[in-house]
Design brief:
The protein is of the alpha+beta class. The chain has three domains: about 1-65, Orthogonal Bundle (Arc Repressor Mutant, subunit A), CATH 1.10.10.10; about 75-230, Beta-Lactamase, CATH 3.30.450; about 320-400, 3-Layer(aba) Sandwich (Rossmann fold), CATH 3.40.50.980. Helix content is about 35%, strand content about 20%. It contains 13 helices and 15 strands. The strands form six sheets. A five-stranded antiparallel β-sheet has the order 4-3-7-6-5, sandwiched between helices. A hairpin with a 5-residue loop joins strand 12 (about 330-335) and strand 13 (about 340-345).
Length: about 400
């Protein structure tokens, strides 16, 4: 029975390849599923298997045959590095390998994981973390800076500054610059002489990227370092240079005008002042806020109360006092559960808070009334608390999983 199933799979693959040859414009996964009489997941599995072997590529028009017969690569420690990286991360991993035929991409991952790339670099390869590594450490001409998403770097000067950071840190990052909802990180693969051999990269959904970044960066740095050490003896006569640790801090001095306008022009001096005289230090900060009733004492030692007798409003200080001067300035950056980025100006947040406050008033929520606020995994959870204290109401944020079903 197993033999029959194996033969059936080969027949389906051959039938699919013949169908793709008759449709050079590309076909979709649903069309493949109908052709083979299989489920959509089975169609994707077969297509991805053919992609990993280099027979099929995925482009804007869908899946199609590769332009040329796959060039078999000799097994190298760099290819083994791809497998090692996958075993360490269990994420979609890529290897960009420099060959005589050009840059060849290989991938490793599980079925169902995001796989936005084919067997060759796309035209917008400058938007990839892998592409930034190749541009930073290799001798490649700058491609046409065509935008792939709204976050793609298209300014040559901005891209050059990004490449300088990549060279300094040994780490390249993409944040939805090639595909919305997908972020990635990559490192160079260097010979002992410092010659670029390729690049290793990992891609994950953007919603998980901030939490996975440290783990992925460490795995990439370790695998890249070990891979250089296990190159054949004729290729590695001397110990390889160590890559910089991805967690190192890069200091960038701000412009003088920006430094003078900062809340803390000299953080070290501010820290010393906070230790030498805490009451005077925090009183100076407090005077920059709006108070409905001033405090009688900065710190009351008998009950360890700060700003005793004072009355202020959190929403007023966080939002209203910045208007109208900063109406068009970004006040809030959000990343929702689906990986979508959002930017909110002070004016937009104020309008949203006002609409919510009006809704609560229409529902009979008055001054001093307490109410729970569920927080779903979308880009607007921070907004409900603002109209509550701003209108004299009390709110307690409640995770969505605890909320009662309607």
């Amino acid at each position: 029975m197993a033999r029959k199933r194996g033969l059936s799979t080969v027949q389906q693959a051959l039938r699919l390849l013949a169908y793709l040859a008759d449709h050079p414009e590309g076909v979709g996964a649903k069309e493949v599923a109908r052709l083979l009489g299989k489920s959509l997941s089975s169609a994707y599995a077969l297509l991805h298997s053919l992609m990993e072997e280099g027979f099929v590529v995925k482009e804007e028009g869908g899946f199609r045959l590769a332009r040329q017969k796959p060039v078999p690569l000799e097994p190298t420690p760099l290819e083994e590095a791809l497998e090692e990286l996958y075993l360490r991360t269990r994420e979609r991993c890529y290897l960009a390998l420099l060959t005589p035929e050009g840059v060849r991409l290989k991938t490793r991952g599980r079925q169902g994981q995001l796989h936005p790339l084919g067997e060759a670099l796309p035209p917008e390869w400058h938007a990839l973390a892998l592409g930034k590594v190749l541009l930073a450490f290799g001798d490649f001409p700058l491609p046409s800076l065509t935008p792939k998403t709204p976050y793609t770097l298209t300014d040559p000067l901005a891209l050059e500054e990004e490449l300088k950071r990549v060279r300094a840190s040994g780490l390249a990052v993409e944040m939805e610059e090639y595909a919305l909802g997908i972020s990635g990180v990559a490192v160079p693969l260097l010979s002992p002489e410092g010659r670029l051999l390729g690049a290793l990269g990992v891609k994950v959904p953007s919603r998980r990227f901030p939490f996975a970044f440290g783990r992925l960066a460490r795995a990439l740095a370790e695998v890249a370092r070990v891979s250089a050490q296990v190159l054949p003896e004729e290729e590695a006569p001397t110990p390889p240079p160590a890559l910089p640790e991805p967690g190192r801090v890069e200091r960038i001095d701000p412009p003088e005008a920006l430094r003078r306008a900062a809340n803390l022009p000299d953080p070290r001096a501010a820290h010393r002042a906070s230790l030498e005289d805490p009451e005077a230090f925090w009183e100076g900060f407090a005077r920059g806020f709006a108070w409905e009733r001033p405090w009688k004492a900065v710190f009351r030692r008998e009950d360890r109360t700060w700003f005793a007798g004072g009355l202020t409003n959190v929403a007023l200080n966080a939002l209203d006092r910045h208007l109208p001067e900063k109406a068009q300035q970004v006040a809030l950056l959000t990343l929702d559960g689906e990986g979508r980025l959002g930017k909110w100006t002070y004016k937009e947040v104020r309008e949203l808070a006002s609409r919510l406050a009006g809704l609560f008033r229409a529902l009979g929520v008055g001054r001093g009334t307490g109410w729970p606020s569920t927080c779903p995994r979308v880009s607007r959870p921070p907004s409900p608390p603002w109209p509550a204290p701003g209108s004299g109401r009390c709110t307690r944020p409640c995770p969505w999983a605890w909320a009662r079903r309607p």
